């Protein structure tokens, strides 16, 4: 079969020209998202998660720009599109959910006006049908008394309810892909769980793929099929969620997993990765993680490891895994 | 005998959230009060970590501020080593203040950006007369090393440090008055997990080394589970449950505690079937009658809507739920 994946990002490079030189914030990142798949993109703040999302939907803020690589939606390049066709893709084929619901909602219009307009722009139907669809969507995302609440303005809803409205809006045009950037980060724990459930269920029902961007490995564990771990603008590791969480291979992922306190653990100390993620103007030569890595070798300080295949569905960017099987060390 | 270091009884704090007088008159509105903390009682033992956990707006920071004296209680008492705090004055108060310190969520906001790190840490040393002259500088250098920074960092400004390093500076400052008790209000909530691990490990080490007692405030149940001996769970300003840390997670008594536990994402991928969490936190200005949790509670009874449940003893603490009166929660 040669059907292209729903989304394919190949060697993506994002740069910021500054007075003191060009900063490379995303450095040759490659991954695919399959039809109906939820891909988690995880990393600490500043790793470049949001920039990847913004690059895909063509909303990088200048002077940030795509300086290399390509982005393909069902095999067609979308990184070089003009503003207008890109805007149509954003409205129709790729839906978006951001951390702050108010970036997606216009405070001056009712929820009905915003949903109906989105539906009518992208789906062939009359006003009454659009309203029916809108009410059904709101009902589906868990807005009580949807037929009445639809006439309210965004500020009439609580934070959690607003994020439900945004999810409805993101799905209104029946997109193929939803990019959700920290959709639950601003919400309380008890509300977070509800929003994650709604997002996951409704996308599954409608066959939409999801790129879920978050710093929270717990959210990824509950939601994603596969996870990509980002460090200093580069992919450290990518693979099925269960494999990566239970058997992390990249030393950074191993450290990250050990540093997360859990409800069941008994150890009195957390795993500590020394130091912190480098700034963009000070990314070390070779493997970006090498100064913090307990396994760093001569080669790690010299050459950058690319993503090396590990079995059928995993890739790891670490020299430890380049050697023959018997030389592979586990951390 | 338990060695109680902090005793909080019936602690209550209202805030006047009325509109300005003219608006009230024109719109014919009553004055409005918000009960941020309602009748909270708990004790903290020397050398332990007591945690308060709750979602935003549950009253955690208000309790912290009352304990360190940044905010006056509307009602209730706080006693440190058996001595009531509010009647302390002058030198006695100053001595008491020295024994207490606080660490906040945002280390940047709590560090004066125009001062060098050395001055930031030296200030309490001078104020409380811990050291003088050249000794101050030596003490600052020692403290910087204790928190994992270097003595030469004293000459730098806060903005030259990362978030995690700034929190280390805040901790060094807090330690400088040689306190016994530190209130930590969401000390790692603004940090990435790998940096959080560094700070939590440091807090543990310091506790062992100096015999510190912590009041740890957090919305993160995993952090609280990792750090605390005992935990109090807050909901809309009320302490709904207090229990030993292990017990709270293996045998939660209050339905809200159960709901919170069910809401934590499962990193262990155990595939456990969670009870779906429902509803959101109501407006604290007009909290629900009776048990404030009743609109979200799967076990709600008639009585819950009318009567505020009293705290009742449980295996290792207390819980305030009408169900506990007759039988344990099914
Ligand atoms: N306009 C900009 N100019 C320079 N650097 C930027 C700009 N926007 C983002 N960056 C940098 O790009 C990196 C990645 O940012 P971002 O994608 O927002 O990270 P994340 O979402 O993972 O927290 C960060 O180091 C950030 O400082
Ligand atoms: N100075 C204040 N004036 C009015 N309301 C306040 C004030 N400080 C806190 N509150 C309210 O008191 C409640 C508890 O707040 P807080 O103690 O900050 O909660 P937490 O730290 O658990 O998030 C909230 O509803 C908050 O809005
Ligand atoms: S490549 Fe080297 S430095 Fe980088 S993670 Fe692997 S072992 Fe560590
Ligand atoms: Mg981001
Ligand atoms: Mg607070």
TrEMBL record, chain A:
Short name of any one Pfam family annotated for the protein: ABC_tran
Main location, first listed in the record: membrane
Record membrane topology: Peripheral membrane protein
Any GO MF annotation of the entry: ATP binding
SMART domains: AAA
Subcellular localization: Cell inner membrane
Domain ABC transporter: start-end pairs: 7-257
Keywords: ATP-binding, Cell membrane, Membrane, Nucleotide-binding, Transport
Entry-linked InterPro entries: AAA+_ATPase, ABC_Ni/Peptide_Import, ABC_transporter-like_ATP-bd, ABC_transporter-like_CS, Oligopep_ABC_C, P-loop_NTPase
Family in the record: Belongs to the ABC transporter superfamily.
The protein's name: ABC transporter ATP-binding protein
Organism: Sinisalibacter lacisalsi
Automatic annotation (TrEMBL), chain B:
Keywords: ATP-binding, Nucleotide-binding, Transport
Superkingdom of origin: Bacteria
Gene Ontology molecular functions: ATP binding
Subcellular location: Cell inner membrane
Family the entry assigns: Belongs to the ABC transporter superfamily.
Protein name (database record): ABC transporter ATP-binding protein
Bilayer topology term: Peripheral membrane protein
CDD domains in the record: ABC_NikE_OppD_transporters
Organism field: Sinisalibacter lacisalsi
Pfam families named in the record: ABC_tran, oligo_HPY
